[in-house]
Specification:
The protein is 66% helix and 0% strand. It is built from 14 helices and no strands. By secondary structure, it is an all-alpha fold.
Length: 227
Amino acid sequence: MELTIREQLLALAQEDYRKFSSGLLPNSNNILGVRLPLLRNMAKKITMGDWRAYLKTAHCDYFEEIMLQGMVTGNAKADTEELLAYAADFIPKIDNWSVCDSFCNGLKFTKKDPERVWDFLQPYLISQQEFELRFGVVMLLFYYIDEPHIDEVLRLLDQIRHEGYYVKMAVAWAVSICFVKLPKQTMAYLKENSLDQFTYNKALQKITESYRVDKETKAIIRSMKRK
């Protein structure tokens, strides 16, 4: 008899990894402790079968059950509109940075239809829900930091107003990636922006932590810190 998804997850759970993951996600008390490569393997197998039926009936009690649904959505083969519909159903289930960022990283179909996904993201970039907004920002930093989009990405990041820690950290991360990839445009932005002090200084910190930024530039960035 074939094991249910939950039974498979329980069989793969490791207590030491549960403790490790719980330390990274302090507000999550529903972690089983299944390593991400094992979840990815499960997602691939599910996607080879009737993944639509799985997504329709999947449970959301455990962190790994939610993570798995995001991975299946990313792996699924369907047209952009159908995948975006599944993404829209999934986004309200995001309640931590790990699920958010893993989900965004898996939505590789964005590269095939970037302008349609760009339009899809716009409501999330003005959401007042912390993880909806983080989803929008992380999608920008994964797929849209390039010459055609940089000015608009910086404009969108600059208009975000939210007190959520995970929003601020995502914006700081995004600005740092903008600088690493397109330093000229981003330096001009850093000299004139509307970021709050915490987010601005975190962005500078992340830039100085990048191995792709030279020592001289890092010194300049450090001198720009707000006090």
